[in-house]
Design goal:
It contains 7 helices and 13 strands. It is an alpha+beta fold. A hairpin with a 2-residue loop joins β11 and β12.
Amino acid sequence: MRSRSVSDVVLSGMVDVPAPPARLVADWEREISLHLELEPGDVEALPLVRARARWPDYRRCVQAVSDWTHTLGLADELADGDVALMACRGARYHHDGAQYGGAAFCNLFLSEDKGLDLHFPAADLRIPLRRGSVVVFDTGQPHAVIKRHDSGFDAADFPAGQDCSLVFLTWELPIEDAAVGHALGISFDTDPSTALLLVEEQVWLNGAPASVCQASGRWCQEN
């Protein structure tokens, strides 16, 4: 296992993607309501294969993101990365470094503007989420989906019966790919002696494992 830095670089933009068909959006809403049963802060996967069969503009969406990543110096990384369709009802502050430490995420948001922001507290960056919002970031960086103008995550901002779920495509980009590492400013082998002792991916801060406060996004030292 290699050690590496956690980047606070966030690459974001807007791409022109058509609205998903109404029947597909209705299918997502049923899936979210009946099967995922999302609670405030939850992020879960939707069936991508079924969606693609009902989504004539899926390839157009992928191409729009690919064209955008090319402007970042990422050539074939998107085509080679694993892709998933996700839904969230907001998202608590968290990092994904323990599960996806070898990857960066590239997310394309497909829902209309519902007054929510993607917040990266370490970078002091808020990205308004609407159809066509696209972002690339280090999985180890704390982030959340919160109510616009709020200072943190509050489950009360996502009451039952309110339409506040978002759907997005996400790709895993290999962090050891030279172009991805360069775009995010990742440094490798920053603490090889510690990495040799670990059997699973972890995020460390000041020489010890760290976690993220789910309400504020602040790093916390694990006990």
